[in-house]
Amino acid sequence: MRPHAILTILPSGIHAAGATRDVWVPLDPMAWDATVAAGFSPIREEIRRAIDESGFRGRRIKARYFSKTSIVELLTLPLKPADARDAANLRLREAMGGANVPSSSTMGQVPSPGNQNMTTLLLASDHTETIDQVAQVVTEAGGNPVLVLPVRAGYLRSAVAGVLACPHQRSTAVLWIDRHGTAIAGGTDRTCTFARLLSTSLDLLAEAIQRASRETGEYSFATALDRLTTIGIPDRGSAFDPDARLDSDHVLPLLQPALQRLAIEVKQTLRFGLPEGEATRVEVIVAGPGARVPGLAGALGAMIETEVHPISDSHESERLRWESKFVLGITPTAVETRRTRSSLVMAAVFGGVAAAAAIVGDAFWSTREIGRMRTQVDRNTLALEAAERAHQLGDRLTSLTEQNTKMETLLRGTVGDQPAWSSVLSLASRTGIVGLEIQEITGGTTTEGPGLSIRGQLPAAERGAASVSALVDVLSASPIISRVRVGSTRLAEADGVPVVQFTITLMMKPLPAGTVMRIAEGASR
Amino acid sequence: MSRELVKNATILCFGVAGLAAAAWFMTLREAHRRLGEVAQKLAEQELTLASTPPLPPDAEQQVATLTEKIERTSTLISMTPATSDFYAFLQELARQSGLRVDRMEPSGAIHRNTDTVRTSGYRIESSGYELNVSGSFAEIVGFMRQIERRIGLGRATSFRVQTKPASEGDVITAEITVMVYVPTPAEPPQPTRSGS
After folding, report:
1. Which residue from A381, A444, A514 is facing B72, i.e. has the nearest CB?
2. What ipTM was estimated for this complex?
3. Which of A20, A377, A436, B155 is the most buried (most CB within 10 A)?
4. What does the pLDDT read at residue A245?
5. Nearest chain B Cα distance for residue A375, angstroms
């Protein structure tokens, strides 16, 4: 960001101090009171000219202005900074006429490394109306004022910064002499103990030279100011401006009152501001535009009988560094309102954008979540169909199991397990044993299960007994017979032929109801 | 100024919040409603799926087996003759088998198991006959086979097959006791009237 441009509005003119170019637009000092009374509007065009010529248009401007109503002072209080600021505010409000008179103020804390319990504040205050008028006229002239400050507060801050930047430990006073005022600050070892404004200024000295030139052809104020900064304070008996036929005898009598007034104010300030005995040993440094007036430091030194010299370049650069540490400036109401409005608009924009982003994010999330859930629902739908089929299958299985249990109960309770009577009868008739004569077959169900008793006879040959065994073997081989037992055998004679009469009992394997029928059906197919 | 700032900021906050709420209401309420519906449906689905009991892996096979068993038993039941027809049915079987029925008397009806009636859901009516038949052995075997195949819920409970001496011819006699059980679905129990 580019640094602030500084626009100084003084009774004698408007000074636009740019980085590369200084512009001075002169004003009639006699018209200043009327200008202030009219709210600075009579000098709008001059301000515009200064802004245009200096290239300040569109840049952020710190406007300094001369004001008789402003209050500028250095206040040291034995309080912590916050309490000190409250006390300073109260003091400024009372000094400006109480709560009924709207005033605006600024304050900067002056670094005080030597004493932590003391707070030193540089205060500046003026009527809010005046501050706003300055800001308005600068705005109307094409500038962008962000801070407004009574010019004397700037002088005082510059002098205080000079003391803080002093490179050595002896008592030092810095005399800041500017176009429309002078400030003096002093202290020891980078601690500022006093500061006040003085009435003398470069413009006063220039006016003295201008008055001195009336006898030989009057200087303009600008010429007088130029001669002051180029020729300076002449020695007694020397020529001042040969081209204008002006020598020291013309100039000095008119300069002396202003210089003496300055010297008296400095001496009194040093006497009251410094400890006793320090006033004569103090080093006085002239700074500001006054430091560029040749002979001014020497003339002042002779008057106050103290060492006075212009500020050195290194001291000046250090002073600028310290000056930048405490910013002074009053924000105009319009600027503050604009900032507030801008902040509110920004807040509204950010809030709206944040809300919109939240809504969009929520919509995005909701849409994605709905999509994800719908996919899951679709996936579940397939699973649910399978589950429904499984349900139906389970229900059918349960129903069938129940029905089958009833039917099995019915079968067990009625026909029960059935022997394959017809099969065993058929088997008995087809044993293939020669001479076998079956006389009786009795079948029925006992406690051991279904069984048969076969009574018959076989030819009693040599191996007649073995033939009964053969019959037992044939019957035992049948899968539907579980056990075959020979009950009795007896040799007898039938029709003159020897035979073996036998009884065989056999137990049958019971088959579940319906099995016999199924076997028979299978056999018939 | 700070009070003005606070006031303006408060108004602004409420304004932005109101606008945001209105915008949310106008744009997202429907989406959130749909989201709620889908979420509820999903939850119901998950609940249904979680409550679905597991089936044995061979459930289909079990169903087929049971169906076959039931069909078989149903066939048995359907082919069982009525008790009133049982006499004629046995006569016809004997005739078809080529046997001569020498004697046929009822053997007396019995209920095999009263618990069966209760647990099977069928009311059972039984009937039995004692038959004296005569014929060849093959005809008797055929008759026994017919009894086993065609009576359904019936069976030959006992029998005696006797051969006669050759002097009496090649005729074999048999005494056979045959039972039939006719099931009819039991009526559901009638609700008892309570009170007076």
Report:
1. A514
2. 0.75
3. B155
4. 81
5. 10
Contact A57, A23 (CB under 8 A): no
Distance CA A225, CA B91 (A): 161
Task: Collect all residues of chain A within an 8 Å Cβ-Cβ radius of residue B122.
Answer: 406, 410
The mean per-residue pLDDT over the stretch B44-61 comes to 84
For the ranges A271-280, A299-308, A469-478, the lowest mean pLDDT is seen at A271-280
Sole residue written with tokens 């009992």: A505
Residue A40: per-residue pLDDT = 94
Q: For A368, name the nearest residue in chain B, comparing CA atoms only.
A: B35
Q: Is the pLDDT of residue A472 over 80?
A: yes
B22 CB neighbours in chain A (<8 A) are none
Which one of B1, B12, B142 has the shortest CB-CB distance to A347? Answer: B12
- DSSP, res A289: G
What is the Cα–Cα distance from A246 to A224, expressed in whole angstroms?
A: 12
CA pair distance A455, A475, nearest whole angstrom: 14
| pLDDT greater than 80 at residue A20 | no
d(CA A182, CA A176): 5
CA distance B180 to chain A (A): 8
Cα–Cα nearest to A470, from A419, A424, A504, A511: A504
- A81-90 in b/e form (b: 16+ CB < 10 A) is eeebbeebee
Summarised one tens digit per residue, pLDDT across range B141-162 is 999 999 988 888 888 989 999 9
Q: For residue A353, list chain B residues with Cβ-Cβ distance below 8 A.
A: none
Q: Please give the radius of gyration of chain A, using alpha carbons only, rounded to the nearest integer.
A: 65
Residues in chain A, total:
525
